[in-house]
Amino acid sequence: MAAWFTRVKIKHLLTESEDPKAVRASMSAIADILDANPVFATFRWKKKFRHIPDGDDVVSPTDYANTLLNRLYDYADEKRIWIA
């Protein structure tokens, strides 16, 4: 079992809505948490959380946000950060 160095709460900020406005608000709130926590200083995708595009027929705002969240979880696993 991995030893987690840090615990960060963001799951309460996630939305089930696929409305672009709700997705942007959720991701911006998560970005606030990431900006406030020095363990995410080297997370290179952090700024993208504040710029969720409108989307098109190929990629929706939800898909874009989920891709960023996957990258966040990968980073957290690598740095032994527990996402709660």
Low-pLDDT regions: none
| Beta-strand content estimate | 5-15%
- Tally of separate helices: 2
Percent in helix: 40-55%
So what's the overall shape?
A: elongated
The tally of beta strands, per DSSP, is 2
The biggest beta sheet is recorded as: 2 strands, parallel
The secondary-structure class comes to mainly alpha
Which H/E pattern describes the elements?
EHHE
N-C termini distance:
17 Å
**C-alpha Rg (nearest Å):** 13 Å
In total, the number of domains comes to 1
Question: Residue-averaged pLDDT, rounded?
Answer: 94
Question: Quick recap of the structure?
Answer:
The protein is built from 2 helices and 2 strands. It is mainly alpha-helical and 84 residues long.
Walk me through this protein's architecture.
The protein has 84 residues and is mainly α. The chain has one domain. 43% of the residues lie in helices and 7% in strands. The chain is built from two helices and two strands. The chain has a two-stranded parallel sheet with strand order 1-2. The mean pLDDT is 94.
Topology summary:
Elements: E1 6-8, H1 20-36, H2 61-79, E2 81-83
Parallel strand pairs: 1-2
Observed structural traits:
84 residues, mainly alpha, two-stranded parallel sheet, 2 helices, 7% strand
